[in-house]
């Protein structure tokens, strides 16, 4: 079937081939490097938790100690499980405490010692992987029992900064119709090279992503899901300096979706590109195992760039995110590729252009759930106009069969959402769904009309841009400001010092387990 | 109960006091406009207030949207609840009460008064079809309903009440511009007074979406029903007022 | 071309034939009766104006005097112009004053006197008709010079009760984008059997329709139209006890559109059915001459009846309004047939059903401008929900090519519009037009889909109902509550005493002139 | 001018005083709810007030929409207008003024501070691309712009100001939750104080959509720019403050 837009399959194939070509060198880099956060993830899978008196997680203390003494070229697993044999009766946290006090001498074990450490590490990490597997089965079981809501899933954000305010708001959102609740992180968390610990009450414009907060919210949503007879999905944010670890914690605490983009941290948080690409691969391997749906962040480009001018950059980025995702083991149904309704409402035919963009993405990625983001940039203080714009966004979402609809707030231009903003937003999409949910079936863009023309144009521009990216390399393209008109040189940004090339004999029990399974 | 009795408006955090306000000022959209809006917001108690939208409408008016925090407290203990002072009865109970205590049919005469032509609300209470899933008064076997429709003058209504020996007069008023509903209600009360003189006049019940249900004394009527009234509430009230308290 | 709904032309033809059959007896009645208001219209065309000390118009005084003395079976023209010959130096107002004082003895002139009176009356009425003709030409000239806005025309209401508050509001509305301004009448005016005089400032929920108010508003809209370079149309309301006179005043003061329905007064104002049918015919003859577009009131049915259950009654009434209109001399482009977006938004697929209804009407009456009314009944106090509902109404209006869109107010469920409500409403439709004005071109209801199915069903129900109406007669159908579920017996309601059967020799110079022209 | 200086809100008639208000109260939607909303409306000065919409949101919150008349007057004479105390210059004039009066390039260091990552506003002022059709400061030949981007700490900014010999430090703050923008501004002021000691510190200019443009004293900065600021306003201000008053 040709689809409503009559896209040329040859052009689509060419676009995918170019994306694979552009991604290849970066994939190779990711396969041959590790990062401090990947190594910490190994320990987290093996059960490390908690923090020292300065609130620095033990995972960080232990990895830093290994790094200081023997480097990370071989990974942390071998030196640490080797040390555990030499410090009988001590668990990972105990070892971390000792190491921090300078009481552990790490080494790269060889021969039988190496084998012994390898086996112990593997067994320890397997425990974590099994817990992830159990969570995945548990999710499937609950969905089977409670039933899965019809697509598009309605996605709502809570962002009070205080997990204990978030919980009632999240439950209220679910009761009012949300299928997915996302807890926005505190600004700045993505630049922390550690994951805070415990239940937190003091975030700015969001709540810290911590294992305990994950657990509390998971339990709260399970409760309300039971009450409502509907599985409520929990979402958080991986992208950032701790992408691998947060992905790991998400698997351990049965989160269902994670914001995880191969370039978001680079463009929007000025995280080093190499660090990001290496981290994203590991994090996606964990997501793949956990059955988590990732959400990518192309929507963000349209907040700094113009949504018409930069429409093709969204498509290019989606093709790259798809490529990196599949390479890491994600299935197509796990690719919640992002895009957004951000065209200036003052321009003529804006709705037709939005339909073109949304339908193009729908047809390019037929199996992906697609995360569709509401207008933000052109939301001002006129809350009535905002409510209307959100309604048309909802309509386009239904007409083009998006999988995940992030609910727009009429007060987007003003403040983080009030309880009532969210309730009104749900009424908004509820009305559109009931009244016009099936309008898309009667929508057939004319062969030579605005919509078809625009979709073809965007795809052509995407192919052209991909050709340039292949030519100059992805890292150069990023450095030149290709995405979100933000320039990020390959050696700039935060976190490059956490990147380490694999040495001969590098070994990571987590990667080994995750890759073996495929 | 240890529920708090004093609360503040809630934006996204307990106690934040956030409210939204919009209004038009008859001033051009110029340098002063935002300051003028802030002045009004301040007088309403918003501090700090944030003018988030300013739109000039022609040369002489400006529209504003303002968000802000108010320090006002709402004391729930001070809220006067219009408690229904009578029990809500089923149709059966209503019929039974009339039969056993009034010993004849209860007669109501209903009309929309004055130039107001809205009948949907009156019909919702009177017609069999009813409202919100409840049948109207016509459905009650022991109630005789005379529905005069709309655009009825107060003297016409009073005359009909006399000729039908009405137990209750029910009037509906939907148009409220220039307080039309209040004036028309006064006319009805006066017309009934001159029709009945010192004789016992029928119960006067007024209804409509913009009436304040606590205003019966001000309006010199027996009962005021506001928006969302259901026929059963009215029937139960009539029984309560006209057929004594049920056992 | 078959249209989007694939309506069967044979069914459409049958519906029209049935409407003509149902209308025929009523048309015959209208041709053979006159009313006090028709007779007063004759005098108004001849230039009578003003009122006595009790504010009763001289037109009423004079017609009443004739009626008291000689009856109206011959019309007022002959006895009055006869009397004018016998009271030299006195004009119509003077004669009315004398007659009111009991100083005039009317008679039915015969022979040469009759001929003389006839000629004088004709000459006097011709003056009025010429003024109407001049106004029509003036309108054409202004439109040619200023340009006519593209359809749909945006129709806005003012309703302050005070003509001097109405004027700035109307001008503001035009500046903000209104193509048509309607001045709602004070509640109750339609039951007055006279037209008040002068500029008025004290209406309830509307402003009295008076010749002076017409003149003031006309001038104000001409002013703002010049400023804007766009002809702004002025609308008022004819239906009511004075339908013929108000239609006449509208022609004399260059109004452009008039609410004029063959049954509205019956159903919604409890005006006698015979009176209404007789009056509507004359009033439409005047509108035809004046080049005024009428707006019919089928939308009102959906405020008392359910918009789904009663959809076919709207179509039946439109066919009747069309039939009566054409018979009275209106051209198809003058038939602004009314309908509305009043389906309960809580029911599934409500937008699809609205599209079906709106498109059905569009295809049934391809040359009529169609007046599309916004949601009113399901507008509550949630102004945000209301704003959204209005937006979807606007969208349907554009998608189905309506000619005249009455702008919905988010505060419909609360109060007569604030200035800001109107401004926001215009922003609403402005956005829909700019963003989605061309969506209709890509909308093709599926052959077996909800929309097509629903449209066919409504048309079939309309034909069925028309068959019943033909069988039992239109007056009986009205008495049985067919329209707006309101029962109106043929002898009930207000104004029957103003109806008079033509006697032998009945003569009306206005009808004669208006019918001669065709 | 005989313009009125005292006005009231305008619904559809001069003097009607009509305003619209919406808010949430942390109470269930029960019999008291509407009364509670009216109490708040009354405290805000709405009399009469009309609760037109009541929506329970879960078991513990209720949302209200209220319309009503306020008696508050807005006295236009009392409105303090933030008058621009400097003339708006063209790019040419700016360059000329700097060249002739400062006799060297004017150096600005800009950053979004703290954990705030919003750069669009800062870039709108600094980047060539500019805002609302006006080119940003980079476009001015006599201005040297150092744009540090976002997520910059106060000490980093202060250090860079010193090393670049900044004439002005421009900070942007968009996230305002828990008054983050105010706290971060304080941090900048303190960091500059410790970096410069008693030496003359650069001009401190802060901007962002939720800043109150009259708050410079409270914030201990030189100038505050709010929403909708254009680069030319900023350039003109810098010239005014750093290169003396133009002739
Ligand atoms: C339907 C309607 C009409 C229909 C009326 C048909 C008819 N036969 O009734 C038509 C189209 C004819 C009409 C005309 C006009 N209408 Co009208 N109309 C409405 C509308 C859309 C719905 C009203 C309604 O039916 N509500 C449903 C019923 C069930 O609710 P209700 O009336 O509140 O009744 C309930 C309670 O109040 C109570 N109740 C009511 N009466 C009684 C009586 C008793 C005894 C008791 C116990 C209880 C009770 O019980 C009922 C059930 O709960 C409203 C807008 C809106 N969405 O509310 C405007 C509205 C009422 N109309 C309005 C106006 C101004 C007019 C017009 C003057 C012009 C215009 N703008 O359209 C004309 C002229 C009417 C006239 N002369 O009076 C205004 C009134 C503004 C105001 N507050 O003054 C409104 C609010 C619209 C607006 N925003 O401008 N209208
Ligand atoms: C774009 C955007 C983003 C982009 C930012 C990309 C980038 N590189 O800048 C992305 C997607 C990354 C983002 C992320 C987040 N955002 Co954001 N974002 C926005 C958005 C949609 C537009 C902001 C914008 O670009 N405005 C356009 C510019 C030109 O306007 P401006 O900033 O006001 O700047 C003008 C003036 O203020 C002034 N000015 C500004 N700075 C300066 C500096 C100087 C020196 C001068 C003189 C003048 C000046 O001049 C400028 C030109 O007139 C707003 C919502 C909205 N519609 O406003 C939310 C918004 C600002 N974000 C918000 C939040 C909370 C976040 C997040 C925390 C999570 C979330 N909810 O999305 C994250 C984390 C960000 C972080 N760590 O800081 C909130 C802030 C709430 C608050 N008041 O505290 C908003 C209001 C959305 C909301 N309602 O929740 N966001
Ligand atoms: C892909 C992706 N990751 C992460 C985030 C959130 O990141 P941060 O917590 O840094 O604001 C976003 C937010 O938009 C995103 O799109
Ligand atoms: C056809 C028609 N005539 C007249 C009117 C207005 O009549 P009145 O002034 O009686 O409210 C309407 C209002 O809806 C109408 O639809």
Protein topology:
The complex is a heterotetramer, with two copies of chain A (518 residues) and two copies of chain B (247 residues).
Chain A: H1 9-31, E1 33-35, H2 36-45, H3 58-70, H4 77-86, H5 92-100, H6 111-146, E2 153-158, H7 163-175, E3 180-183, H8 211-228, E4 233-237, H9 243-252, E5 257-259, H10 264-269, H11 273-290, E6 293-295, H12 301-304, H13 311-328, E7 335-336, E8 338-340, H14 350-364, E9 371-373, H15 383-399, E10 404-406, H16 419-436, H17 450-472, H18 474-479, E11 499-501, H19 509-516
Parallel strand pairs in A: 2-3, 2-10, 3-4, 4-5, 5-6, 6-7, 8-9, 9-10
Antiparallel strand pairs in A: 1-11
Helix pairs in contact in A: 1-11, 1-13, 1-17, 2-3, 2-6, 2-9, 3-5, 4-6, 6-19, 7-8, 9-11, 11-13, 13-17, 14-15, 14-17, 15-16
Chain B: E1 6-7, E2 18-25, H1 33-43, E3 46-57, E4 61-70, E5 74-75, H2 91-102, E6 106-112, H3 120-126, E7 143-147, H4 154-163, E8 168-172, H5 180-196, E9 203-207, H6 216-219, E10 223-225, H7 231-242
Parallel strand pairs in B: 6-7, 6-8, 8-9, 9-10
Antiparallel strand pairs in B: 1-5, 2-4, 3-4
Helix pairs in contact in B: 2-7, 4-5
The complex binds cobalamin (2 copies) and pyridoxal-5'-phosphate (PLP) (2 copies).
What report would you give on this structure?
The complex is a heterotetramer, with two copies of chain A (518 residues) and two copies of chain B (247 residues). Chain A is α/β, with parallel strands linked by helices and 518 residues long. Chain A is 53% helix and 7% strand. Chain A has a nine-stranded parallel β-sheet. A two-stranded antiparallel ribbon of chain A has the order 1-11. Chain B has 247 residues and is an alpha/beta fold. Helix content of chain B is 30%, strand content 24%. Chain B contains seven helices and ten strands. Chain B has helices at 33-43, 91-102, 120-126, 154-163, 180-196, 216-219, 231-242; strands spanning 6-7, 18-25, 46-57, 61-70, 74-75, 106-112, 143-147, 168-172, 203-207, 223-225. In chain B, helix 2 runs parallel beside helix 7 (231-242) and helix 4 (154-163) packs across helix 5. Chain B is elongated, with a radius of gyration of 24 Å. Chains A and C meet through helix 14, helix 15 and helix 16 of A and helix 14, helix 15 and helix 16 of C. The structure holds cobalamin (2 copies) and pyridoxal-5'-phosphate (PLP) (2 copies). One cobalamin sits between chains B (115-122, 124-125, 131, 170, 172, 174-177, 205, 207-210, 225, 227-229, 234) and C (159, 184, 187, 205-206, 268, 300, 303-304, 376-377, 379, 411-416). One cobalamin sits between chains D (115-122, 124-125, 131, 170, 172, 174-177, 205, 207-210, 225, 227-229, 234) and A (159, 184, 187, 205-206, 268, 300, 303-304, 376-377, 379, 412-416).
């Amino acid at each position: 079937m040709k689809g409503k837009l009559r896209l040329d399959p040859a052009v689509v194939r060419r676009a995918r081939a170019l994306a694979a070509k552009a991604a290849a060198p970066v994939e190779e880099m990711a396969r041959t490097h590790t990062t401090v956060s990947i190594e910490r993830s190994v320990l987290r899978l093996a059960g490390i938790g908690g923090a020292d008196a300065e609130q620095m997680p033990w995972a960080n203390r232990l990895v830093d100690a290994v790094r200081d003494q023997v480097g990370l070229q071989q990974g942390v697993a071998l030196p640490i499980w080797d040390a555990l044999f030499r410090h009988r009766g001590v668990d990972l946290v105990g070892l971390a405490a000792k190491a921090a006090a300078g009481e552990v001498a790490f080494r790269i074990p060889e021969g039988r010692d190496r084998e012994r450490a390898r086996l112990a590490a593997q067994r320890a990490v397997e425990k974590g992987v099994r817990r992830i597997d159990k969570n995945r089965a548990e999710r499937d079981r609950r969905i089977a029992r409670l039933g899965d809501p019809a697509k598009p899933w309605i996605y709502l954000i809570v962002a009070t900064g205080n997990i204990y305010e978030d919980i009632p708001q999240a439950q209220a959102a679910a009761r009012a119709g949300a299928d997915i609740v996302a807890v926005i992180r505190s600004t700045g968390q993505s630049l922390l090279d550690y994951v805070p610990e415990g239940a937190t009450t003091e975030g700015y414009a969001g709540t810290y992503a911590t294992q305990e907060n994950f657990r509390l919210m998971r339990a709260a949503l399970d409760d309300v899901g039971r009450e409502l007879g509907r599985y409520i999905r929990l979402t958080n944010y991986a992208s950032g300096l701790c992408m691998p670890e947060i992905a790991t914690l998400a698997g351990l605490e049965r989160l269902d979706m994670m914001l995880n983009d191969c370039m978001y941290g680079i463009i929007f948080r000025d995280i080093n590109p190499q660090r990001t690409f290496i981290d994203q691969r590991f994090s996606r391997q964990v997501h793949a195992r956990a059955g988590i749906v990732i959400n990518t962040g192309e929507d963000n480009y349209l907040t700094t760039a113009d949504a018409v001018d930069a429409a093709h950059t969204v498509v290019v980025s989606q093709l790259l995110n798809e490529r990196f995702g599949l390479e890491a083991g994600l299935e197509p149904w796990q690719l919640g590729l992002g895009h957004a309704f951000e065209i200036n409402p003052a321009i003529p035919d804006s709705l037709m252009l939005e339909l073109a963009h949304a339908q193009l993405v729908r047809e390019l990625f037929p199996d992906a759930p697609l995360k569709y983001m509401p207008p933000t940039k052109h939301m001002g203080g006129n809350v009535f106009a905002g409510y209307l714009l959100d309604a048309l966004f909802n309509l386009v979402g239904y007409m083009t069969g998006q999988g995940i609809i992030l609910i727009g707030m009429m007060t987007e231009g003003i403040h983080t959402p009030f309880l009532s903003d969210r309730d009104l937003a749900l009424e908004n999409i509820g009305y559109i769904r009931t009244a016009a949910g099936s309008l898309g079936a009667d929508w057939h863009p004319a062969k030579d009309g605005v919509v078809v023309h625009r979709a073809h144009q965007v795809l052509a521009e995407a192919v052209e841009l991909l050709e340039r990216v292949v030519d100059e390399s992805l890292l150069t393209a990023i450095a030149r400001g290709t995405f979100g008109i933000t320039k990020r040189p390959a050696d700039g940004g935060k976190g490059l010092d956490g990147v380490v090339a694999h040495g001969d004999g590098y070994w990571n029990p987590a990667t080994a387990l995750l890759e073996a399974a495929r | 109960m240890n529920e708090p009795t004093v609360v503040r408006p809630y934006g996204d955090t307990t106690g934040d006091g956030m409210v939204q306000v919009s209004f038009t000022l008859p001033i051009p959209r110029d340098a002063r406009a935002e300051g003028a809006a802030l002045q009004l917001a301040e007088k309403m108690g918003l501090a700090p207030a944030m003018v988030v939208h300013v739109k000039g409408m022609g040369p002489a008016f400006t529209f504003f949207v303002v968000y802000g925090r108010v320090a006002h407290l709402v004391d729930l203990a001070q809220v006067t609840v219009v408690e229904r002072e009578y029990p809500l009865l089923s149709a059966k109970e209503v019929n039974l009460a009339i039969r056993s205590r009034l010993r004849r049919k209860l007669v109501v005469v209903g009309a929309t008064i004055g130039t107001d032509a809205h009948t949907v609300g009156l019909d919702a209470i009177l017609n069999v079809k009813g409202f919100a899933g409840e049948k109207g008064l016509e459905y009650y076997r022991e109630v005789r309903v005379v529905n005069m429709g709309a655009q009825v003058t107060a003297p016409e209504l009073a005359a009909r009440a006399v000729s039908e020996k009405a137990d209750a007069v029910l009037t509906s008023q939907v148009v409220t511009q220039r307080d039309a509903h209040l004036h028309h209600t006064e006319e009805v009360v006066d017309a009934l007074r001159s029709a009945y003189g010192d004789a016992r006049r029928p119960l006067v019940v007024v209804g409509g979406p913009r009436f304040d249900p606590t205003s019966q004394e001000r309006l010199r009527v027996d009962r005021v029903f506001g928006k969302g009234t259901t026929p059963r509430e009215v029937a139960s009230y009539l029984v309560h007022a006209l057929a004594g308290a049920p056992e």
